[in-house]
Amino acid sequence: MDLLEYQAKELFRQVGIPTLPFQTIYTPRELKRLQIPYPVVLKSQVRVGGRGKAGGIRFVANTIDAIAAARNIFNLSILGEYPEVVLAEARYDAEQEFFLAIVLDYQLQSPVLLGSVQGGMNVDSLLDNLQQVVVDGEFSSFYARRLTVKMGLSGDLIQSVSTVIEKMYRLFQAKDLDLIEINPLGVSAQGELMALDGKITANELALARHLDIIALTTKDNHLSPQEKAATQIDLSPTIETEQWLDWQDRKGKIAIICNSRDLAVITWDLLCQGKGKPACCVLIDDSRYSCEDAFVSLQEQLAKVLQEIDQRAEIKVVLVNILAEEKVNFTIAQTIIELYQLGEKQIDTTTGEERNLVANGAKSRSHRQVNNQSNSRPKQIPSVKIVMRLLEREIDSLPEDIPENLLYWTDNLEEAVQKAISFGKSR
To answer: How confident is the model at residue 298 (pLDDT cuts 50, 70, 90)?
Structure first.
């Protein structure tokens, strides 16, 4: 998951990487209450590159110019992405600009430190001067100093830039990041350093361990403390009953069912990143699985939720992302399968009896003939397509002959998200 520049700089501040005073702007009129003295730079907050060349970065000297520039930036598409927020930041006069980054190299299975004495928008010059150091052991200041020497730095810059690299690595390790980048790292005439731009890519599989990153990316991040307190989503994993979260998009095609709020946030965000259109999200209670009655309650919750989802004609797909104990996961999967196959009765050609595919644990259709007239689905059974994310051992326990055009399951969350997006577009 790629963070926006201002979100990356919020994390920079946590570890003491120097950043300029900044303020997030959600509408041009907010610039009338700007707390940063002019001149300032306005930056489009999009996840794609090329903002400067596309006109998404503007330097302004007063409020009138700032409002006009902000209007242009909000209406400027950069590689198909429009900003929802603009960053207003103090201007900084840099004498030199460096490039620094730490990336997780999956081929080497090690973090790699990257550095160049030519930072900024000139990519060719940056790459021509790029140096790297592989962290093949426990990290120490030795690796940071080695990179600065390979970059050709000298004097006080070796110590000051090494300190920034060490802080970057501490953040990289603590937050399970795939990438952290500062480009450029500005150096003033007095030798002071400043992270003028930043990029962070968080590992999506580790987000559940870093709720502060999730909080940074939630849509209400710009609200006042009072507004946040009124609308704050509790990220605790347990709920009392099925609960519809206050995330609604009437144009959305995909409904989400999860058993915790952190899973819900991650799933919603992944759908948005994949250009999917989530419509709503509901949490179900799986916390009372110690008694048999709890499974009945779980089945009732699912039936109720699916029927309510089916009332919304615009929803085409339900993405189920449940992480719980194995018996809970299996109960959820089996319940959904049974609900969605109540209308798919089979006729046994040897006895003439109508049989239910799942209830009889059938493994093959070779000894049955489908009666098309009996395939009509009861009105109370939802008709949307289901995509389920389950663990592999639970998938192995499910019937093998469930038609993929009705139900699809996988143990890979990214695959489940992509399938849900694909089904949503094709229906």
So the answer is: confident
